[in-house]
Amino acid sequence: MGRPHRVLAAGLVPALLLLAAPLQAATPPCRAAMATRAIAETPSTPAATAAAAPATGEDYRQLLRPTGFGWPRLDHWCVWVEPAATGGAGQRWDALWLGAVERALGQWQQDLAITRVEDPAAAQVRILRRRPPLLREPNGRTRASHGRAQLALVAVDRGAGWILEPQVLVQISPGQRPEATEANALHELGHAFGLWGHSDDPADAMAAVPGARPVLELSGRDRATLRWLYQQPTNFGQPLPAAPASR
Ligand SMILES: [Zn+2]
Q1: N or C end of the chain: smaller count of CB under 10 Å?
Q2: Ligand 1 centroid vs 2 CA: distance in angstroms?
Q3: Å from CA of 161 to ligand 1 middle
Q4: What's this model's pTM, rounded to 2 decimal places?
Q5: Ordered mean pLDDT values, 10 residues apiece, the chain (247 residues)
Q6: CB–CB of 67/39 below 8 Å?
């Protein structure tokens, strides 16, 4: 008596899975943060620390540095870009800046799940049209640059409890040639999406020292490094391993 039911059930299950699959594969929404807390970079458990990767020669994974909580990457990123002015003298320059940043973002979008959002509170990556402040080096000298990415580790409540997230502020100078803006944005966004380190090859977008020609497309090594990074286990995007620090 039970056998026909079992056959029926076995036939139904794959059909149900097929129905459910598109729902599971759908991009999760970007929700505004209800609360955000900075957390210290010290991991709560030693096991959370990712080890530096051995070199393979096909990418530059060994030059990347993980955080105390592991590799700061997410399966899905919500990105906010400062909008262009809608009128006035700056409008044309703002539009050139925005176009260059969008082209750079488009390069990363070929390999990563990225959603543009209109609310900065819904984003993990915020891109500002702003010249980064001078950087003071340990030797006391200051250094100017046209692009900077700064990483903060945060606990964020987006309505479903505390989640560990990387929060990245990217500053890209206005007033550069569009090609320079684009190359800068391509590089800084690489940091934002988890490539915290520099390549030793000037042909890579993540080169420590840029070559004579601006790199506007990700190289094979950039993409290989990214692929490797996104195969690594991570605590980011997951519920916090422990209660967030209260300070
Ligand atoms: Zn850099």
Answers
A1: N
A2: 64
A3: 33
A4: 0.83
A5: 41 45 63 94 52 77 93 97 88 94 98 97 98 87 90 95 96 95 98 97 94 94 97 93 53
A6: no
Question: 70 φ, ψ to 5°?
Answer: 105, -165
Tell me the C-alpha distance between 10 and 13, whole Å. 6
CATH number listed for the domain at residues 30-229? 3.40.390.10
How far does residue 207's CA lie from ligand 1's centre (Å)? Answer: 7
Do residues 167 and 151 touch, judged by C-beta distance below 8 A? yes
Say if CB 110 and CB 131 are below 8 A apart: no
Residue 206 CA, ligand 1 centroid: distance in Å:
6
- In DSSP terms, 166 is beta-bridged to 153
Query: Residue 187 Cα, ligand 1 centroid: separation in angstroms?
Result: 6
Residue 224 structure tokens: 């290989």
Question: How far is the centre of ligand 1, averaged over its atoms, from the C-alpha of 191 (Å)?
Answer: 7
pLDDT score at 25: 53
Q: How far is the CA of 112 from the centre of ligand 1 (A)?
A: 19
pLDDT for 234 equals 93
Q: Ligand 1 centre from 195 Cα, in Å?
A: 9
134 CA → ligand 1 middle, Å: 15
pLDDT of residue 204: 97
Amino acid type, 141? R
Taking the centre of ligand 1 as the mean of its atom positions, its distance from the CA of residue 197, in whole angstroms, is 7
- List pLDDT tens digits, range 89-125: 889 999 999 999 999 999 999 999 999 999 999 999 9
